[in-house]
Each structure stands twice: as structure tokens, then as C-alpha cells.
Amino acid sequence: GDDYAKGRDWYFDTGATKKFSDWAKLDLDVSYRRRYVASYWRVFYGGFGNSIRKDTIDTAGFTPKLIINKPVIDHENTLISGIDLYRVDFSSDAYDYSDIAQELTRINKFSKGYYLQDEFTVLKNVFASGGWRYEKAEYQFDYHNLAGTDTLDSDIGPSKKAYNAGLVWKYTDQSSLFGNLSQSF
Prior knowledge:
Elements: E1 4-19, E2 24-40, E3 52-62, E4 65-69, E5 77-95, E6 101-123, E7 126-145, E8 151-156, E9 159-169, E10 177-183
Antiparallel strand pairs: 1-2, 2-3, 2-4, 3-5, 4-5, 5-6, 6-7, 7-8, 7-9, 9-10
């Protein structure tokens, strides 16, 4: 009955579009989010445990993309290319009942994603699409148990590739048949 959690979450997103012509434009979006959660619980495992946890996640993003909507050999074509840049900072602090810090955790992530997606009208009612994405994330981990029993400082940098290809046949205004092949992460 004495357990509870409280949180605050807010988000800001803005952007601008620059048209270069009737068929090309650049979208520039910037975002920021802060999420804070504090939880309090009375469960004490054999007299050990941290009853208060305060977590904060800050996420900043910059996601420019170029959209080219121009026919190719008299067939409609839309090409989208972009970059997704995100910085995420996570902090989690654990306290005991007397509000004395017991654990400090910090995880920082910077990710860079590059992508290309194309949609092409093969025939009047047949559409093909294909895309590719590469993303690399860089993590920094920092954990300290203030009792001095556990500490972790580490950096890792995984990367992944993804792709998709598909075909759609729109045989009536209300119905279509499609197939898709993709690899995601």
C-alpha cells in the first residue's frame, strides 16, 4: 500500500522544410525529450535492497532527410535519403530508506543511422519499393555500487544493416496484393 511511482515526461519537436524545386525538398527536424520517473517501494529482500530509484532519460535528435519526387523514364518515382542522429543519456540512482545513495548508473548512447528508400511505379497499378539502412551506436556504461562491491566502466559500438524490397499490385481501387522481403534489427 505504501508503494508508488511518479513521473514527468515532456517532448519538443520542431522542423523546417526547404523546397529546392517542384520535385525536391529537404526536411530538417530537431527533437528533445526528457523523461523522469521516481519509484518508491517497501519490499526489502532479507534486509537488503534499495527502496527508492530515480531515473532520467534525455534524448536529443537531429533527423534531416532529402525527398526527391521526380519521374524516371516517365514512371513516378520517390527517393528518400536521410540521416538519423540521436544522443540518449540515461541516469539511474538508487537510494535506501534513509535517502542515502547506494548505486549510480549512467548509460550514454550516440547513434548514427543512414538510409535510402525508393518507391517506383512499374506499371499503372504495380509498384516496387526498396531500401537500405546502416546504423552504428556507441555506448558508454558506468555503474558504481557505492558499497564498493561492484563497478562497471565499459564502451561498446555495435553496428547493423537492414534492407527491404517489395512489390504491390493494386488490382482494384479497394484491393491489392503485395509481397515484401526484409531484414531488420
